[in-house]
Amino acid sequence: MSVEQYSFSILSFKDCPAQKTPEKVIELLRAWRKAHPFADKCSVCKTFLPLIPYTLCCGHFYYNNKFKTYPVQSFAVHTPKYAFELPILKRLKTQAKLKMDQDFLVIPDPIFWQVVSTLVYKKIMKFVQGLPITSWTQTFQSPSKVGLFYKQILETPLNYGSLQRRSCGKSTLIRQVAFGKRCILSMRGMIVPDASLRPNQIQLLAHVVKKFNIQNQWIILNRMPSL
């Protein structure tokens, strides 16, 4: 029997202790973004939660606060026809003419998630299901984009118990989502000196204020730290 008739897997999907479908993951992500408190009973129906690390109830996400030490546990998501893998592993398999049957993805424990992480995971779950990633473009991504999404998984920020990680740096929601993509009423401009302005004061051009009708309204300005 030649080597081309073999297939190998680093881990079998049935060996993963926690298994979820892409639909279940999207429901989990939505509930996490809504609220993720530590509680022993649901705030809506007042039902006592099961003795597991995290659970969903009435559309809300809960951690169980009865655990003295939190049992960290990731979960696996079945991704048929999509093999998320390192580029070097893909090259080595091609050279050896080996096939791979690991058609699932391992996602970190929700206790480490940030808002940015949940947005990346939700986008990938829609990609796996063949659904449009965003509702306003209705664009379907081709299977050739697997490598791009796998890179986003590797680079997605996780919160390892530090509140500072959630609010500082390039991995925050504002830097990656608000200022990291094209959006309505967004523009770029140069900061130039003006002797009539007070310290920490910025003046917008009159025609910009008139065009966007932002008189007496709050706006967000992103100032480069080096300026």
Question: Gist?
Answer:
This is RPOLA_N domain-containing protein. By secondary structure, the chain is α/β, with parallel strands linked by helices.
Q: State the oligomer.
A: single chain
How much helical structure, as a percent, in the residues?
Answer: 25-40%
- Give the overall form: globular
- Number of distinct helices: 7
Spell out the helices and strands N to C: EEHEEEHEEHHHHH
User: Termini separation (Å)?
Assistant: 66 Å
Tally of extended strands?
A: 7
Q: Output the structural class.
A: alpha/beta
> Which strand order do you get reading across the main beta sheet?
2-5-7
Overall radius of gyration: 23 Å
Largest sheet: 3 strands, mixed
- Any low-confidence stretches, pLDDT <50, length ≥5? none
Overall pLDDT: 79
Tell me the fraction of residues in β-strands, as a range.
5-15%
